[in-house]
Automatic annotation (TrEMBL):
This is MFS transporter. PROSITE patterns: MFS. The chain crosses the membrane at residues 60-80, 92-110, 116-141, 162-187, 193-217, 266-285, 291-311, 318-337, 343-365, 377-402, 408-427. It comes from the Bacteria. It is found in: Cell membrane. GO terms for cellular component: plasma membrane. Its main location: membrane. GO terms for molecular function: transmembrane transporter activity. The keyword Cytoplasm does not apply. It is a multi-pass membrane protein. The keyword Glycosyltransferase does not apply. It comes from Pseudonocardia broussonetiae. PANTHER family: AUTOPHAGY-RELATED PROTEIN 22 (PTHR23519). Pfam families: ATG22.
């Protein structure tokens, strides 16, 4: 991936690109297994099933993740900024990744009893914070393992590795530990032991695949050593001063952060509500949802890989606009078709555009970021994303209620994607 670098641009070793992508592969252990498909379900459907009181386990989980999102929004820009200034970007990835893995391993202690729900929620909330902070600095490393000519391909490679890693690990834990009660390994299921053991497997998976990047990719040099020694309040004051300067010098960078926050919320909603809609609207059997999820991740990974090449030739904005337009077109079709077969065809078509939009959003910001400020901007990227994360879920619920139809919830997702697309159109594309 270093052969197309412009004259004067130092080449990047392929081994560094692979090592960087392996972190994405390993991180699927948290995203796919812990937060989305396995442990969060165990926490709400088993551990908190008999929770006394008027507040359900689902609500408590929402409160926990919501509080984590608020802390991430407040912390991410300043913490990443300080890591940039001190030349400790890779160290930041290592520290936050290690803390994420520790919380994942700690989930083994959460037995199948509502008295353990609070422990599970605290660990899951802390894990969400640590993982997001690790991701901020990891995304900033993109500029260290790519050149201006290859940043799209490298970003697409990372997203694809994340999708594929999630597929492989989900299949491993489902077949080995979960299917039929204990999986083919015959793991005991008392007190949720098989699911708790999955948390340990996921922690080990993340640890093994995070190590190569920490060993192979060089650390970024310090850019503002004095700033790294500022206190927290002084760091926030410096951040706000830089934001004002950024608005004066490069307002389209801030416009992009706002626009991307909107459509990224729609992208997240596709996966958040996709499984529910597949069952309630299109009649997909419960047992087939996991199979569709695997297929959806394969398609999204293929889209991210292909779009990376397009990104390097025509730029990230064209890829994002094309992907959002494609999703809106497919989404309109999904509003009128019915049945499992139609959902398989058009649901997978929808997922084909998700990977490219996510990958090219990362490269868009990487191309905009001034050297040495990548972590700070990706921290703002995380913050703005969190700030808008309520929009799509709220609109899905609103349209479902107004039209008394689960299918109408799709309108909420499409509206957020459309607003994000309109907001992106006037944003100047990076050079």
């Amino acid at each position: 991936m270093s052969t197309d670098a412009p004259v004067g641009t130092p080449p990047v070793a392929r081994g560094q690109v692979l090592a960087w992508g392996l972190w994405d592969w390993g991180s699927a252990a948290y995203n796919a297994v812990i937060l989305t498909f396995v442990f969060s379900v165990y926490l709400t459907d088993s551990v908190g099933a008999d929770l006394p009181g008027p507040v359900s386990a689902n609500s408590w989980l929402g409160y926990s993740i919501g509080a984590s999102g608020l802390l991430i929004a407040l912390m991410a820009p300043v913490i990443a900024r300080r890591a940039d200034a001190a030349g400790r970007r890779k160290r930041a990835v290592a520290v936050w990744t290690a803390l994420t893995i520790a919380t994942m391993a700690g989930l083994f202690l959460v037995e199948d009893d509502y008295t353990f729900l609070a422990l599970g929620l605290v660990l899951l909330g802390l894990g969400s914070i640590f993982f997001e902070l690790a991701s901020v600095s990891y995304n900033a490393v993109l500029t260290q393992v790519s050149t201006p000519a290859t940043v799209g391909r490298v970003s697409g490679f990372g997203w694809a590795m994340g999708y594929l890693g999630g597929i492989v690990l989900l299949l491993v834990v489902y077949v080995g530990f979960i299917a039929g009660g204990g999986g083919v390994l015959g793991i005991p299921t008392e007190n949720g032991f098989h699911i708790r053991l999955v948390a340990l497997v996921a922690a080990a998976w993340f640890l093994v695949f995070a190590i190569p990047m920490l060993l192979v990719v060089p650390e970024v040099p310090a850019t503002r050593g004095a700033e790294a020694r500022l206190g927290i309040l002084a760091s926030y004051r410096a951040l706000f001063a830089d934001l004002r300067a950024l608005y004066r010098e490069s307002p389209h960078t801030l416009y992009f952060l706002g626009a991307s926050a909107l459509y990224r919320d729609g992208l997240a909603a596709v996966f958040t509500f996709g499984a529910v809609l597949a069952v309630t609207v299109y009649g997909i059997a419960d047992d087939d949802v996991l199979v569709f999820g695997v297929a959806a991740n394969v398609v999204a990974a293929a889209g991210a890989l292909a779009a990376g090449w397009v990104d390097d030739r025509v730029g990230p904005k064209a890829v994002i606009v094309g992907s959002l337009a494609g999703m809106l077109g497919v989404g309109v079709v999904l509003l009128v078709v019915s049945g499992p077969a139609m959902f398989w065809v058009f649901g997978l078509a929808l997922c084909l555009f998700v990977g490219p939009a996510q990958s090219s959003s990362r490269t868009f910001l990487a191309r905009l970021a001034p050297p040495g400020r990548e972590g700070e901007l990706f921290g703002l990227y995380a913050t703005t994303g969190r700030a808008a994360s309520f929009l799509a879920p709220t609109l899905v619920g609103l349209f479902t209620y107004l039209f008394a139809s689960d299918r109408a919830g799709i309108l909420g997702i499409l509206l957020v994607l459309a607003i994000g697309l309109v907001a992106l159109l006037p944003v100047r594309r990076p050079a």
